[in-house]
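Example complex used in Figure S2.
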Amino acid sequence: MHTNHTDARAQLHAAGLRVTAPRIAVLDAVAATPHADADRVAAAVRESLGSVSTQAVYDVLRACVHAGLLRRIEPAGSAARYETRTGDNHHHLVCRDCGTVVDIDCVVGAAPCLEPGDDHGFAIDEAEVVFWGLCPACRS
Ligand SMILES: [Zn+2]
Ligand SMILES: [Zn+2]
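Predicted assembly (140 residues):
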């Protein structure tokens, strides 16, 4: 994943975050396995860096979400998942059985992609759309 390192480095720098080995490793791990949960990210980070505490990984994930480098999703009944694809209002298709998550492009192209009949005076900026079903592996 050496090609990714420069990306992560540049992204951290552009976001005004200090470039540290754990931050680079977390961004690389999430880029390599989109929609991974924190445990899976922590396991990948430990593989490349040795001992890094789970708390440290959580701290990096939170900082990167806050800086807009990562998006955090939390499908009902699942641990929070992380991905590097941010800012495009894409949705997710989740398997009810195994929890596999797949990206679905925004249905209309921009948030909020659903307009309620009555907005009750709210300035609505997002509709959280999650598609649920069974993935091909779980169907067979
Ligand atoms: Zn499945
Ligand atoms: Zn996604």
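The chain has two domains: 5-82, 87-140. Strands lie at 36-37, 71-73, 81-83, 91-95, 101-104, 130-133.
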